[in-house]
Specification:
The protein is about 5% helix and about 45% strand. It contains one helix and 30 strands. A hairpin with a 5-residue loop joins strand 8 and strand 9. About 40% of the residues are buried.
């Protein structure tokens, strides 16, 4: 009997050592989807990400051309820049206006959200870029240095830098934190209509009225290459391997590495004012002076859908970050939101 009790004592002592006695078990759980429940692992039921519901319809309030539109990174807000000298922010779930940003004294040509959604930049024909706090609408700083209209603004992927393209034929880089000018890119011989960062942030593309698209090295400002033929707008694909550019005749898809033409998109009856890729890179959206916006299949160039009903030219388009909504700005002074989830 004593021998049995001794053996049991030794057994329980070994169990206490193995399990840490009365102390909390500190052995890490290998599976992040498991939790400890009375000494056992129980799977956690992961809830699906909520699907954002977007408003579909027309947003009114501007009293002049809407030149630029942009979704916030989380899709909750839409910004629109107008020739009425204002930036307006809209609730994307119901289309209601949130606030109006005033301070520019001439037309606004371009708006862009920072990657974290905290700042919105606006470029204006008053030759300045202004940075605004999106949550309260306060002006953070004004960037000055361009000697003519600022036609395009873009944030770098890390949010630390802003690029601006101007009618003074130059592109400038700015430090977001303090507004200081970093460098100027020169070489274009006509107005800069569009600028875009590559997804990795190493390269900047610019599109000019001199009928060229140029690529620049961000780190030292050196010129990399020139592609000819398209003066209106430029956009990088999400993988950074291709560029979409537009002209008064068509849209072209170019290979970034050598500038070779991959395919051409035709169908608009007038010039194409802007092109943007969907977040997955499978679809291209375009706006046109023919008073329509269109969707295209990137892989084969086929036309997918035409958006009509505008009373004037369509000047800008933007996809939401999930690709389920398309916004457009028009010369009829309106912003329109379209469901493109199907």
């Amino acid at each position: 009997m004593k021998r049995c009790l001794l053996l049991l004592s030794i057994f329980f002592a070994m169990m206490l050592v193995a399990c840490g006695g009365d102390d909390e078990i500190t052995t890490p759980i290998e599976d992040d989807n498991m939790v400890m429940d009375n000494g056992t692992q129980t799977p956690i039921e992961l809830l699906p990400e909520p699907v954002r519901i977007y408003y579909s319809g027309t947003l009114t309030g501007h009293w002049d051309y809407v030149e630029s539109v942009a979704f916030s990174p989380d899709g909750s807000m839409l910004a629109s820049g107008s020739w009425d000298n204002t930036v307006r922010l809209w609730n994307t779930s119901d289309g209601t206006p949130l606030r109006t940003l005033t301070g520019h004294w001439r037309s606004i040509y371009s708006v862009a959200f920072s990657p974290d959604g905290i700042i919105i930049a606006s470029g204006s024909s008053d030759n300045t870029i202004r940075l605004w706090n999106t949550s309260c609408g306060t002006l953070l700083r004004t960037l000055t240095g361009h000697t003519h209209f600022v036609r395009s603004v873009a944030f770098s992927p890390d949010g630390k830098t802003i690029a601006s393209g101007s009618s003074d034929n130059t592109i400038r880089l700015w430090n977001v934190n303090d507004g200081t000018h970093i460098r100027t890119f020169t070489g274009h011989t006509h107005i800069i209509r569009s600028v875009a960062f590559s997804p990795d942030g190493d390269t900047l593309a610019s599109c000019s009225g001199d009928n060229t698209v140029r690529l620049w090295n961000i780190s030292d400002g050196t010129y990399l290459s020139t592609f000819t033929g398209h003066p209106e707008t430029v956009a990088f694909s999400p993988d950074g391997k291709t560029l979409a550019s537009s002209s008064r005749e068509d849209i072209r898809l170019l290979n970034v590495s050598d500038g070779s033409l991959i395919r051409t998109f035709r169908g608009h009856l007038n010039g194409v004012s802007q092109v943007v890729f969907s977040p997955d890179g499978k679809t291209l959206a375009s706006s046109s002076w023919d008073a329509t916006a269109r969707l295209w299949n990137v892989d084969d160039g086929t036309h997918l859908r035409t958006f009509t009903g505008y009373l004037n030219v369509v000047l800008s388009v933007a996809f939401s970050s999930d690709g389920n909504s398309l916004a457009s700005g028009s010369g009829d002074n309106t912003v329109r939101m379209w469901d493109v989830s199907e």
